[in-house]
Amino acid sequence: MKANPKPLILVVDDEPDVRTYLAAVLERGGFEVVLAENGNQALTAMTERLPRAISLDLVMPKMSGLKFYQYILKNKERAGIPVLCLTAHAGDEFGSKDLAQLEALRGKGGKLEVMSKPIDPLRYVNTLRAMLDRPSLDRLEEGTPAKADELRGEIVATLGRADVASLAAALSLLKK
After folding, report:
1. Which of 20, 16, 69, 23 is nearest to 46 (CA)?
2. Does the domain made of 8-175 have the CATH classification 3.40.50.2300?
3. Taking CA 44 as the corner, what is the angle to CA 85 and CA 68, rounded to the nearest 5 degrees?
4. Phi, psi (deg, nearest 5) at residue 120
5. Confidence band of 98 (pLDDT split at 50, 70, 90)
6. In what order do the strands lie in the sheet with 83-87?
7. What are the tens digits of pLDDT across the range 38-88?
């Protein structure tokens, strides 16, 4: 078991390309990702594994982001999960009403942030990292601090199982 596991983010969006893009960005930002195409699928996913945070599209068929958020606020186990709501419809008839209702729920439990689409990938990742009290990243690419965090966790776990001779050998290699 890793000493520093990646936080699980549930990405809920009805657009397959958007889900794929958001998942790729989040993975580069040091997160594990589970995808759902609507609120109903998201609720099912949450029964299998509770996420640390949720990236939620506001306007979706079957169950809107607003309805999904209202539902999780009513559940004690889920109410404290941070939610980053994404929308491309903040100012139009498709989303402005839901957005206003969502904003009215701010402070009723859990952390809620709203971001307009299209998103800036680094801002998106850092918003979720801040919601989870993790340090911000300077950039998204291979070898980011998120990857370094993962490697440090693996080193700590491995060192915890090592004998004295192995620790001495590892230390001498690190000093070179």
Report:
1. 69
2. yes
3. 30
4. -90, 120
5. low
6. 32-36, 8-12, 53-57, 83-87, 112-116
7. 999 999 999 999 999 999 998 888 888 888 888 888 888 888 899 999 987
